[in-house]
Amino acid sequence: MSTSPLTEPTPTVRAASPARSADAADVTLAARDSARPGLRGPRLPARLRTARTRHTLIPWAIGLLAALVSAAGSGNASYWGDEAASVMSAERSIPNLFALLGNIDAVHGSYYLFLHFWTGLVGTGEFAVRLPSAVAVGVAAAGTVMLGRQLLGGRAAIVAGLLFAVIPQVTMMGQEARSYAFGMAAAVWLTNWLVALVRRRDLSPRTWALFGVAVAACLYLFLYLALLALVHVAVFVAFKPGARMWRAWARSLVLAAVLAAPVVVFGLAQRGQIGFLARRNYATLESALVGQWFGSAFFAVAAWALIVVGLVAAVRSGWRAALVLGVWVIAPTALLFLGNALVTPMYNLRYVAFCTPAVALLMGFGVTALAALVRRRRREGGATGWMLPALAILTVASLAAPVYLAQRGPYGKDGGSDLRQVADAIERNASPGDAVVFAEDIKPSQKPRLSIDLYPDRFAGLTDVALVTPFTARDQLWDVVRPLPEAAPALLEHNTVWAVEREGRSLEDIAELQRLGFYPQQMIQVNRSVIYRMVRTPPELP
């Protein structure tokens, strides 16, 4: 029977896997020899030093590649409603931001605070604001490789890191001004740390106290990372480290709970803000199998096939990796579905983005298992050992390409958000002294009004006649506006009004403007928005 790669405290490659490469063997020897007093520093053979350096750099090289994949074209798409919440929160003063978090979005407070300082440095352009998410994807990819080395062996880890970079949910979160990419990185590195602690049976109180602080920090970043506890239980069950380790972990969780109590309390108090989930009906089989990670049916079929192969191969070679990764892929979604059905709406496709490292690891192990099977039948090895995994990676990337390109189109967010394009059209066509009004009979995250909040420079010189209180002067997310009939006196001070409406919606605003003596002179179709130029035309003389 083959030995699991998780049996010993030091990472090794499974006996059932293809033979370990010379590089990996060199790294093992280098690590062993460097621990001997006579082989430190310059006396270490150059070949071993090179191998060890390469071993260290590979995860971060893959992380850099993943960050570049996510960053490429990330400024193309307009902001959408959720990103508007991020940017508009970041633009507030610190006192106003904390006042806002006392009412809503406390669970995103850490990210908003970070973004406040980041946008102060780089501005609020889409690429600049989304760039930290791409960097977080890179950090998550490096962590995926590192965790893969601990659980599956070096080759599967590298394949998994490369596959992680092209998973559609990853490339989406990598160009999203939200905290989900940070959640991916936090989840995989926290799990890396736990696996390392358990494997070496580390009982240091200081280390476990730091681990508890890290868990609390993760909860401040994204409260749903509490679901990682299910995965970490699986780590303990898989490794059987003993009662003392269980107690050390339990104490760290108590510390984490105490430190994270404020965000937990505020999150529970503000749980009504996700009540919209009940109307969206996200908790469907299609969401679980396709939408939450894979974006398209074609990609999902290939991904699930590799996941199943990887899971079977992991079970056959040693059940530890299969247990940890299987729980990570299945349990958070299952628990959210159960809570969604029995307690309160709580499932959203993005809430389980932190499971993508496990998805990539099982896919990567599936690729290497299939490649090993083919090589055994052909009796091939050596340099050809990477040809089949490389072909598989390219195939998976080609399946992801249509989704990737759609994400990076000008209307790649929220089914066609066109907030920037609306602002650009207004800037090109309006004149100083004109008025502007926006349709308000739409859910807040899709209101055309967000275009003036996100791109105010495009509206310079125009009068927002319906505005009562701007968001920066409130402890809530959005502006306070008056109904259009109440804005009539202000409207009548202008000869031209630009009305931004949603295509296919009621044109009550246009009818109201006509009652006030404005007539449509121009219509500009953007994407899902329509802009009307309304003018007051004096009666024609006979």
Automatic annotation (TrEMBL):
Keywords: Cell membrane, Glycosyltransferase, Membrane, Transferase, Transmembrane, Transmembrane helix
GO molecular function, a single term: pentosyltransferase activity
Annotated TM spans: 57-77, 127-146, 152-168, 180-198, 210-237, 249-269, 289-315, 322-343, 349-374, 386-405
UniProt-listed InterPro entries: LipidA_mod_glycosyltrf_83, RgtA/B/C-like
Glycosyltransferase RgtA/B/C/D-like domain residues: 113-265
Name of this chain's protein: Mannosyltransferase
An example Gene Ontology CC term for this record: plasma membrane
